[in-house]
Design brief:
21% of the residues lie in helices and 29% in strands. The chain is of the alpha/beta class. The protein has a seven-stranded mixed beta sheet with strand order 6-5-4-3-2-1-14, covered by helices on one side. The protein has a seven-stranded mixed beta sheet with strand order 7-8-9-10-11-12-13. Nickel (II) ion binds next to loops.
Length: 227
């Protein structure tokens, strides 16, 4: 079974597991780093880490067009139902759910989550995804927290961590996060979208290589990485 992860820019990822297409935090049309439009993306599941615009902007339109199931916290799931999204799985921190292609557990994240129209967006989170025999951790937008060692305790094949600074962990804290999570491989996210979160991902990758046992992979937008 194939398992591929493609960066679509910023914090948007496409995870392809067998015939399933799982989209994480779709932000495409107004994303300066994106090379695709929301109307050109298909998915059968959409995972949303939190309510901020740069994570949910294109979720409703893609979910309606593709009849995709959206997995998010309960507040965001309800907000999307109000916009005509028919299939949602509302969950909350610590909870998990079995889906046709694997299992998703919502992890904690230290961040905020207000929705674009000012609605309450519940708690920000991340996702521990088990699919295709792999364990993949999407940290979402977050500060560094020591409980990452608990998330890594079951073993992680891949971790996706923000490095942009300002709104999330920066490169130094992200490096500390790699040490706590101890994944086999790690990919950076949430950087270089706009000047305030510009980062040298190659320098971060060299630090990861030098100081941890994880293999850093700096992705190119639109180029799939085999997991
Ligand atoms: Ni955010
Ligand atoms: Mn963000």
């Amino acid at each position: 079974m194939t398992l591929e992860l493609t960066w679509l820019g910023h914090a948007t990822w496409l995870l392809e597991s067998g015939e399933h297409r799982i989209l994480i935090d779709p932000f495409l049309d107004e994303n300066p780093a994106s090379i695709v439009q929301a109307a050109d993306v298909t998915a059968d599941h959409i995972l949303l880490t939190h309510g901020h615009f740069d994570h949910v902007a294109d979720a409703a339109s893609i979910a309606r067009r593709c009849e995709a199931t959206v997995v998010a916290n309960f507040e965001i799931a309800s907000w999307l139902e109000g916009q005509g999204v028919e299939n949602t799985v509302g969950m909350n921190l610590g909870g998990g759910v079995d889906l046709p292609w694997g299992r998703v557990q919502m992890t904690i994240a230290w961040h905020s989550s207000q929705l674009p129209d000012g609605s309450y967006g519940g708690s920000a989170g991340g996702f521990l995804v088990q699919t295709g025999g792999k364990r993949v951790y999407f940290a979402g937008d977050t500060a560094l927290f020591s409980d990452m060692s608990l998330i890594g305790a079951g073993g992680l094949d891949v971790a996706i961590l923000p490095i942009g600074d300002l709104f999330t962990m920066g490169p130094e804290d992200s490096l500390a996060a790699v040490k706590l999570l101890a994944p086999q491989r790690v990919l950076p996210a949430h950087f270089n979208t706009w000047p305030p979160i510009a980062q040298d991902a190659d320098a971060w990758a060299r630090s990861v290589q030098a100081e941890t046992s994880a293999e850093p992979i700096v992705p190119t937008v639109g180029e799939p990485v085999q997991l």
